[in-house]
Amino acid sequence: MKIQDMEIIAQIEAEENIAYGVNDSALSNDRATAIDYYLGQPFGNEEEGRSQVVSYDVQDTIESALPQLLKVFVAGDKVVQFDPKGPEDQDAADQETDYVNHIVMEKNEGFKIFYVWFKDALLSKNGYVKVYAEEEEETEEYEYKGLTDAQLQMLASDEKTEVLEHEAYPDPSVNMDALIQQAMAMGQDPSLIMQPMLHDVKLKVTEKKTEICIENVAPENMMVSVEVNGPNLQDARFVQHREVMQLADIAETFNKPLEYIKSIMSDLRDTFEEESNARDIYDEEYDRALQSDEALVKDTYIKLDGERHRVVVLGNTILHKEKMECVPFACITPMIMPHRHIGRSYADLTMDIQLIKSTLLRGQLDNMYLANNGRYAISDRVNLDDMLTSRPGGIVRVEGDPSSGIMPLSHPPLPASSFAMVEYMDSMKEKRTGITAYNQGLDANSLNKTATGVQQIMTAAQQRVELVARTFAETGVKELFKLVHRLVRTTLTKPDIVRIRNKWVDVDPREWKARKDLSISVGLGAGNKDQQLTHLMSILNMQKEAIQIGITSPEKIYNALAKLTQNAGFKNPEEFWVNPANNPPPQPQGPSIEEQAIQAQKEIDAMKVQAENARKAAELEERQRKDAADYELKQRELAFNEWKTKLENDTKLMIAELQANKDIKTTSMNIKGANPDTFTNFDEYGQEQPNNALAGLVEAINANMAKLVEQQTMNHQQMVETLNRPKQIVRGPDGKAQGVV
Question: How far apart are CA 182 and CA 175, in angstroms?
């Protein structure tokens, strides 16, 4: 074992010796005595032959206070409300409120948790709950028939899925001969064609989920350092939860071999015997002592070098150690003792009253017994067996005169003050606890008292119960919800889909903010349910008038109706009323007839102005287009005229050049004796012969002339078509026309 571990264990043992808990004999004795009084166990001073009746004042008080306290917390749809950090945080705070309330009240059966928690506090001074995250495996089995290869591969590829049963067979819908022929036609190897298969499988899907768990902890299983002031345990130097666990569970929880756990297990008989024995009505502890596969585990939260650690100890061995941000326990007490962790319980207030009342009742009953079965002085002439048998109509045998053989012994009558003392003790109990015969409906003489007087008594008593409820709310209940919120935010690693207020909601705790501000909404109000009903009805009547002058809203009226519904005992107000906050925003109301007429006239005038502006803009645009077109036409005409003049000049030059060439050739032919008109020459014999060269030259010149004229004509036609085609106005960056294309 490491020296560091030995030092930690030594420090834990030192804290155990001075902490509140099982090593505190006075505290353990008080708790065990309170349990005995609650169960109506004998006091130990009973005498044989005398009355041994026990009054159940402790039990009656606790069981009368418990319904009133529970109703305050579980009657509504939410216990706490997380406060937003700003206007933009309102929706997130509302969602976190709904989800955390859902975890506490729905997933963890909050009513059961609160019932045991409150009863522990009312009976044993302090009540404790533990909050922790637990990873659970959910397993479901599915059967599929006729899966294809791809479908089976897709399902089986999931690491969460395990194939339990599998049967494969050829797909009857596939023609293998056709597939083989098709493969051969495509030049493929037919041996590579695989037979498609179908599969019937049975799968097991295992999914791991992290659950937030809340469990009650018996007060005798807790140890708390004595320096703690009040119920809050977050500043405690030392807190320990002792729990008896089976060895197999210990090995599984802390991932240790079972043999190793057996080798270091401790004796579980060394702790919480007194208080556990007090609860042992049917010899449960005796039966547990017969179990040999259990051991005591000490889940300890201790500050080491200024940092809080969780240290799990079995025997003298540390099984687990980690740093912790907080202590996962929430504590409540009905009456806080200043500067102390251990408070006072209802049992502390009523145990002495139960003892006194039981003593008075025993005396009253003994006196009645003596009145019904008095004591007698008898002589030896009386049959002793007949005298010892007391029954109606019984015969006592006497020798001689009975009056001289039997003499009744007188005993003092029952004093009237005895009954008055019992009533006084009841009134003392009511003053101490606030639990009266009126709010229990047990006073038969209430009708003989004035309504105002009874109401004053009930109001004063109700305030004491409400004070206990407020104490619970502002201490342990608030701390419980803080712990759950922190644990949800730090341990849940994926979104969750839950049904809240009859709607499916996506919740992603990874986006939550760390919140320290939360207000308790426990439905505490003045008076009983009838009084609260009267107040709510008055508020609703005033809201009807207030909404006319704008000092209330539909949301505020809905809140009053929700409280009214909860006061009637219905948990979910949305079953009866529609929350205006969930409605779409109202559509704006239409204008009046006068406003519509004015608006229509404005629209007509605007349309006239718009039409006039459009007409002017069209005229301006048409004028600009026409001017641009005229300008472009003039430019084209000037260009055409220039081209025409140039063409005429070029033609004249070409004709002149051709004429010059013709004159030259004519001269040449004349010199040689050629006829320029017929393109012939005279040979040496004086015969006229055709001059092919000259004729070809002339033909080429004429062809070029014709081609040139044709080209000029086509250009002229294209220019005319260009001038006559539709024009498109080109505008500049300022919107003004710059030309036509």
Answer: 11
Alpha-carbon distances of 724 from 629, 638, 639, 718, 740, rounded to whole Å: 11, 15, 15, 10, 12
Q: How many CA atoms lie within 13 A of 623 on its CB side?
A: 6
pLDDT of residue 728: 60
Distance CA 192, CA 425 (A): 99
- 443-446 long-range Cβ contacts below 8 angstroms, 24+ apart: none
What mean pLDDT value characterizes the chain?
Answer: 79
% the chain with pLDDT above 90: 21
Residue that has been written with the tokens 């190897």 in this structure = 189
Tokens of 380: 């030896």
* Beta-ladder partners of 163: 203
Other Cβ atoms within 10 Å of 523 Cβ, number: 18
C-alpha angle 140/145/147, rounded to 5°? Answer: 100
Phi, psi torsion values for 393, nearest 5 degrees = 75, 10
Maximum C-alpha span of the chain = 221
Model pLDDT for residues 132-146, shown as the tens digit of each residue: 998 877 888 889 888
Pairing of strands 329-332, 317-323: unpaired
SS3 content of the chain, % helix, strand, coil (to 5): 55, 20, 30
Q: What is the mean pLDDT of residues 298-319?
A: 91
Check whether 340 has a pLDDT greater than 50.
yes
What's the pLDDT at 527?
Answer: 45
Spatial contact of 299 and 312, defined as CB atoms under 8 Å apart: yes
Query: Would you state the pLDDT for residue 685?
Result: 54
CA dist 613 → 183, 603, 604, 617 (Å): 76, 15, 14, 6
Cβ proximity of 523 and 563 under 8 Å: yes
Q: What is the CA radius of gyration of the chain?
A: 55
Cα gap 277→735, rounded to integer Å: 102
Residue pair 2/316 in contact by the 8 Å Cβ criterion: no
| Secondary element (H or E) of residue 446 | none
To the nearest 10°, report the CA torsion of 42, 44, 48, 51: -40
Name the strand (E) or helix (H) holding 123: helix 110-124
Structure tokens at 736: 């003004």
* Eight-class DSSP state of 676: T
Token duo for residue 711: 């080209």
Residue pair 376/409 in contact (Cβ under 8 Å)? The answer is: yes
Host H or E run for residue 64: helix 57-74
Model pLDDT for residues 185-224, shown as the tens digit of each residue: 777 776 777 778 889 999 888 888 888 999 999 999 999 9
pTM of the model: 0.66
Q: Helices 416-433 and 346-372: crossing angle, nearest 10°?
A: 160
How many DSSP H helices and E strands does the chain contain?
21, 19
The encoded tokens of residue 27 equal 């505290």
**E strand segments, 533-653:** none
With 0-12 / 13-18 / 19 or more C-beta atoms within 10 angstroms meaning exposed / middle / buried, residue 508 is exposed
**Residue among 84, 85, 115, 79 nearest 98 (CA):** 79
Structure tokens at 284: 């449960």
Whether the pLDDT of residue 600 is over 50: the answer is: yes
